[in-house]
Specification:
Strand order of the largest sheet: 12-11-8-6-7-14-15-23
CATH topology of the largest domain: Rossmann fold
Radius of gyration: 24 Å
Largest sheet: 8 strands, mixed
Helix content: 25-40%
Mean pLDDT: 96
Strand content: 15-25%
Bound molecules: 5'-O-[(S)-ethoxy(hydroxy)phosphoryl]adenosine
Low-confidence stretches: none
CATH superfamily of the largest domain: ANL, N-terminal domain
Number of domains: 2
CATH architecture of the largest domain: 3-Layer(aba) Sandwich
Length: 633
């Protein structure tokens, strides 16, 4: 097992070591895992191409490290705990032995259905234990998993399946979310009309609703499981073989497939999990994320299981059957570490303390947040009412591309400061740059956040398009990975993340690209052009504001609004629906035709005194018109 830091003093000395000799530092942590063959070179890198290889030549299978190596000492300890959407339904648990067995069986089902090492397998599933098992089953046989959040539409799903040419899709009849039952298989069926690479669909039974079966393509998991053994040797992988692809939104174009590899990702997720959450033997750890996002990959499945922890999965939503559900579950399972998103905290805060008061919450030792900046009010509420002012809050900053937590407190080992993520983890070298790329050395300054040295779990490429990876992350500033975030460093060197400086909106902690939403809106036949920006939203952090030009005058604005929302739901999914749609006659454009989103952002934010110079616009009068209509609303 990797080293667990025990004091702020120790953090400082470990950090110093990790910067002085990163290879030595990570080699030491990596040696604690089970490698079938040792690696040849600890690190080989340049950020120019970029090329980053950690532990290359080393052979391993991550599931042997998540499962097999724990069987001897903790085979009977609960590995995975599962809480259903319906509070009346019994929870489920799998010991390490049982989880190992289920992963092997599922892996054999994959093999029976033609899966091989290197294949891409798409998972579009609810938060059932089978989703966690399926992820590991893919890794067991060396297939690359591509989990797509099961809130995306058929079109969005098809795009992702096609981008990676997946040959198998794993899904379920339905998804249960609160009172809703959403027919997942129907979405998959629709998507697959345009996905020629898919040969098999394996369906897990979730809600028992009827589904249509395409003979020769669709099979039921429970039928398949009857036909396989519980023995499945793990495929030998190189440390730099891909482990998974996960699609995420950027400033431009379609979402891209972020690729993570086996060895470095394994070392870093385990190390960061243990240190950030200060997980101790016997603790019950709960992360409320969905496995469809990076947080679920790294801190529900891989990090905790690698560390031999008990990790919990929750199928439902925070407000079902009422806004006390999280706290009820914390008491029920005696949760010790609780990790959620600021948007959930704000939503529950708005529901009132009567939903918190009935619960003891006295098993909690560490609280965590992730996904977006946490505002002071939410931080204080979390601290006072959930933590009772007694336990640390770890505000963890990281990204799909970073694979693991980059800036965060390590449990109670160090100072805490509301709304500050804090100090970088050992091995992480953040810097602040000015827009020209000049290093900002002083403290008490704001700048663009970049990382100047590789870390084991960093993005290796964007699937099928390495140039895009280079252009997106490694071209803005020479020899740096650019995060797309702005940050502030205080007098003590602690970091506070301010938010995205690019055209990415963060809605309820979900990343959405403005270009993506515009493309979707433009699919609506009445739309001529659109421009999308983010604006502050009390619960969601940011909301989506769309300025839309329609063909001709519209009679019924409400009807057109509804139709645009339906288009966005169809093209991307409900999570990308704009909160506000304003119809406009023209958009502020430069003489070269570029939309000035900066001006639209200021309008949507209500900061009308800060529009800046509009005289360089092709037609400055459009701004006045947009403002007038904005104020009328
Ligand atoms: C934002 C989620 C402030 C940030 C793990 C980043 C945060 C984007 C924090 C990545 C935090 C994440 N404080 N902002 N603690 N954590 N972000 O890829 O803008 O879904 O770039 O990864 O979320 O979102 P992603």
């Amino acid at each position: 097992m990797t080293h667990q830091i025990d004091s702020f003093e120790e953090y400082k000395s470990e950090y110093a070591k990790s910067v002085k000799d990163p290879k030595k530092f990570w080699a030491k942590q990596a040696k604690t895992f089970h490698w079938r063959k040792p690696w040849k070179k600890t690190l080989d890198w340049n950020f120019k191409e970029p090329k980053v290889k950690w532990f290359a030549g080393g052979k391993l299978n991550i599931t042997e490290n998540c499962l097999d190596r724990h069987l001897k000492d903790r085979g009977d300890q609960v590995a995975l705990l599962w809480e259903a959407n319906d509070p009346k339904e019994a929870s489920k648990s799998y010991t390490y032995k049982e989880l190992h067995r289920e992963v092997c069986r599922f892996a054999n089902v994959l093999k029976r259905n033609g899966a091989k090492k290197g294949d891409r397998i798409c998972l579009y599933m609810p938060m059932l234990p089978e989703l966690g098992i399926a992820v590991l089953a893919c890794a067991r046989i060396g297939a690359i998993h591509s989990v797509v959040f099961a809130g995306f539409s058929a079109n969005a799903l098809a795009d992702r399946i096609n981008d990676a040419s997946c040959n198998i899709v794993l899904t379920s009849d339905a998804i249960r979310r609160g009172k809703k039952v959403i027919p997942a298989k129907l979405v998959v069926d629709e998507a697959l009309q345009n996905c020629p690479s898919v040969k098999k669909v394996i369906i897990t039974n979730c809600a028992g609703i009827e589904v249509s079966i395409t003979e020769g393509r669709d099979v039921w998991l429970f039928e398949e499981l009857k036909k396989v053994s519980a023995k499945c040797p793990a495929e030998e992988m190189d440390a730099e073989d891909p482990l998974f692809v996960l699609y995420t939104s950027g400033s431009t174009g379609k979402p891209k497939g972020v690729v993570h590899t086996c060895g470095g990702y394994m070392v870093y997720t385990e190390y960061s999990f243990k240190n950030v959450f200060q997980y101790k033997e016997g603790d019950i750890y709960w992360c409320t994320a969905d496995i469809g996002w990076i947080t679920g990959h790294s801190y529900i499945i891989y990090g905790p299981l690698l560390a031999g922890a008990t990790t919990m999965m929750f199928e439902g939503v925070p407000t079902y059957p009422d806004a006390g559900r999280f706290w009820k579950v914390v008491d029920k399972h005696k949760v010790n570490q609780f990790y959620t998103a600021p948007t959930a905290i704000r939503a529950l805060m708005a529901c009132g303390l009567q939903h918190v008061k009935p619960y003891k919450l006295n098993t909690l030792k560490v609280l965590g947040t992730v996904g977006e900046p946490i505002n002071e009010e939410a931080w204080n509420w979390y601290d006072e009412h959930i933590g009772k002012g007694k336990i640390p809050i770890v505000d963890t900053w990281w990204q799909t591309e970073t694979g693991g937590i980059m800036i965060s407190a390590l449990g109670d080992k160090g100072p805490r400061k509301a709304t500050y993520a804090g100090y970088p983890l050992p091995g992480i070298q953040p810097v602040l740059l000015d827009p020209k790329g000049k290093l900002i050395k002083e403290n008490e300054k704001e700048g663009l956040l970049a990382i100047r040295f590789p870390w084991p779990s960093m993005i290796r490429t964007t699937y099928g398009d390495h140039k895009r990876c280079k252009n997106t992350y490694f071209s803005a500033f020479k020899n740096h990975y650019f995060t797309g975030d702005g940050a502030r460093r205080d007098k003590d060197g602690m970091y506070r993340i301010i938010g995205r400086v690019d055209d990415v909106i963060n809605v309820s902690g979900h990343r959405i690209g403005t270009a993506e939403v515009e493309n979707a809106i433009n699919q609506n036949p009445v739309v001529v052009e659109s421009a999308v920006v983010g604006y502050p939203h009390a619960i969601k952090g940011q909301g989506i504001y769309a300025f839309v030009i329609t063909a001709g005058k519209i009679k019924n604005e409400e009807e057109v609004r509804k139709s645009i929302l339906a288009t966005v739901s169809k093209e991307i999914g409900k999570i990308a629906k704009p909160e506000q749609i304003q119809f406009v006659a023209g958009l502020p454009k430069t003489r070269s035709g570029k939309i000035m989103r900066r001006i639209l952002r200021k309008i949507a934010e209500g900061r009308h005194d800060q529009l800046g110079d509009v005289s360089t616009l092709l037609d400055p009068s459009v701004v006045e018109k947009i403002l007038k209509d904005f104020l009328k609303k």
